[in-house]
Design brief:
By secondary structure, the protein is an all-alpha fold. It is 69% helix and 1% strand. It has a two-stranded antiparallel sheet with strand order 1-2.
Length: 312
């Protein structure tokens, strides 16, 4: 072989940017062995050894361990397989780092104490199944053993909060607040009362499901009244009540009379809990859904208007 095609360790160091010590280490380990030796015993490397060394440098810069580098060079594993495995590992590390960043941002936003930060970190690191267990336990405790509206139970179970793998700080905060909410005994007791009320209504013959259209009608009609500054006890409110009770009578197959108004007011009093609204707002934030409107002012106005205008 012509000496012009051979490189000393010093020449390799200049071409690759590696130190002489590092090249000697790779050589001693048999990763990039010398092609030959000079008459004086110095190690010499050909162009293939240079290419091999540059590959080693690149793999090491990508944090691939020496045993794996050796297998790649020995063709015991393909470079594509190694790259795919390490890309997946890096993706996992990136997700972890982003999750930690979101937790730290949430801690800063909430000005959390160490105990809350530790709890937040544990909660977001649960598996999806473990996170869902909090909600299933809440539903089992509040609706279990009660013949409540099955459509409502199904809605709760099918609308699980799914914290993304890379959540934003507000999603971490929402998840933290949601866990605290569903573990609150007062909230559980209130939802249990709602479930028992639904059971009573079903026993009285109410087999209807959810009433999204009716809720939207209430929101629209009362929203206009609120926007116009109409007080619930004002004369103008009577027309709004008439419109809405007519819809309730049609939906539930009841006469539109004073008994219906008392019954609607009772339903509103049982269901209108700001914490229920907050539950759905938190689920929406966690799942990245559009923000949910706060209907508590709407139902409060409607309840007051029903009491102020008890009969047609």
């Amino acid at each position: 072989m012509d000496d012009e095609t051979l490189f000393t360790i010093g020449a390799l160091a200049e071409r690759t940017g590696l130190t002489v010590k590092t090249i000697r280490f790779y050589s001693d380990k048999g990763i990039v062995p010398p092609t030959s030796h000079s008459p004086a015993g110095y190690r010499l490397y050909d162009i293939d050894a240079l290419a091999r060394l540059e590959l080693v440098r690149t793999l090491r810069e990508l944090d691939i361990d020496l045993p794996t580098v050796r297998r790649v060079l020995a063709r015991e594993t393909s470079l594509a397989e190694v790259a795919a495995a390490h890309a997946a590992a890096l993706a996992a590390q990136i997700r972890v780092l982003r999750l930690r960043r979101a937790v730290l941002q949430a801690v800063a936003n909430r000005e959390s104490k160490p105990q809350e930060m530790d709890l937040m970190h544990k909660l977001v690191n649960l598996t999806q199944t473990e996170r869902h267990r909090y909600i299933h336990d809440f539903i089992d405790d509040t609706f279990g053993g009660v013949d409540a509206n099955p459509a409502m139970v199904e809605l709760l179970r099918s609308s699980m909060p799914d914290l993304p793998e890379e959540p934003a700080a507000d999603q971490v905060e929402a998840w933290m607040e949601l866990v605290q909410l569903v573990q609150d005994n007062d909230f559980r007791a209130a939802v249990r009362r709602m479930a028992e009320y639904q059971e009573q209504q079903r026993a009285d013959g109410d087999s209807t499901g959810l009433h999204h259209d009716l809720t939207e009608t209430v929101r629209a009609e009362v929203g206009r009244a609120l926007g116009a500054g109409v007080a619930p006890d004002a004369v103008e409110a009577a027309a709004v009540v008439d419109t809405l009770t007519a819809r309730y009578a049609e939906t539930f197959g009841k006469p539109d009379d004073a008994d219906l108004r008392r019954w609607v007011a009772e339903r509103l009093a049982v269901a209108n809990d700001v914490r229920v609204t907050r539950y759905w707002q938190l689920v929406a934030t966690i799942n990245g859904w559009p923000p949910m409107a706060d209907l508590e002012p709407v139902f409060t106005w409607f309840g007051q208007a029903l009491r102020s205008h008890p009969a047609k």
